Amino acid sequence: EAQVTQNPRYLITVTGKKLTVTCSQNMNHEYMSWYRQDPGLGLRQIYYSMNVEVTDKGDVPEGYKVSRKEKRNFPLILESPSPNQTSLYFCASSFDGGGGELFFGEGSRLTVL
Amino acid sequence: AQSVTQPDIHITVSEGASLELRCNYSYGATPYLFWYVQSPGQGLQLLLKYFSGDTLVQGIKGFEAEFKRSQSSFNLRKPSVHWSDAAEYFCAVGVVRGTASKLTFGTGTRLQVTL
Fold first, then answer.
1. What is the Cα–Cα distance from A47 to A33, expressed in whole angstroms?
2. Among A84, A102, B4, B50, which is disulfide-ready with B33 (CB 3.0 to 4.6 Å)?
3. Could you tell me which residues come within 8 angstroms of residue A35 by beta carbon, excluding any fewer than 6 positions away?
4. Is A70 near chain B, with CB under 8 Å?
């Protein structure tokens, strides 16, 4: 089954404790992206990747890191989480980025205390 | 830079009534246009998309959208709403420039359906 898988789905952590949210897709998509969803703000792009070893900032990259060492994986790293990073995070992938259909994971709800 | 406006935060319609969700975009040329739906606790699913050609686009679940260049709009419509259509709907604008690509989402419209 074609899918985008994120883990963990739910996480409660404390300020400053590094964490990684994993994302994996099995559709051989070139493009992958991370979004955060906050009430009243819709989805805002954090980082995206056009291909392996190619990443770029989205609209709200501060406090986040990503890497794209393999085509299928695109982890989101929070080196020192802060309470303002409490949010619902979505990973998505597509064949061709801004022009193509995005396939979304089910989301990861992160709470930073 | 492109932007998307969904002026209605929340809409309530009766089951069986018609629906129109508004979307306006700002971009210098014709972008790629999308509508996504998010059911509670789920990720987003594509309803339909417009790239070029016929300005009336048909999607899944009986939805359609019309691109109007003169109004910079891409409104979503459904002739008869079902209770299962209750969800949040997002309009999105996609721009591809060379090797760079960006998809910008609106803030969403939450649809409530009364029986």
1. 6
2. B50
3. A43, A44, A45, A46, A58, A89, A90, A91, A92, B105
4. no
Nearest to A106 among B42, B94, B108 (CB): B42
For residues B13 and B112, what is the distance between their CA atoms, to the nearest angstrom? 6
Could A42 and B32 be called an inter-chain contact, meaning their C-beta atoms sit closer than 8 Å?
no
- The full length of chain B comes to 115
What residue has token string 């259909």? A101
Q: Which of A41, A42, A104 sits opposite B43 (nearest CB)?
A: A104
Q: Is A47 helix (H, G, I), strand (E, B) or coil?
A: strand
Give the closest residue to A33 by CA, choosing from A3, A63, A4: A4
**Distance of alpha carbon B54 from alpha carbon B66, whole angstroms:** 9
Q: Which is it for strands B64-68 and A65-66: parallel, antiparallel or unpaired?
A: unpaired
Cβ neighbors of B59 (< 8 A, separation 6 or more) are B35, B46, B47, B48, B49, B65
User: Are A99 and B94 a contacting pair at CB < 8 A?
Assistant: yes
| pLDDT, tens digit, 9 for 90 and up, residues B23-59 | 999 987 778 899 999 998 888 999 999 988 889 999 9
Could you tell me how far CA A67 lies from the centroid of its own chain?
Answer: 11
Distance of residue A58 Cα from the nearest chain B Cα, in angstroms:
8
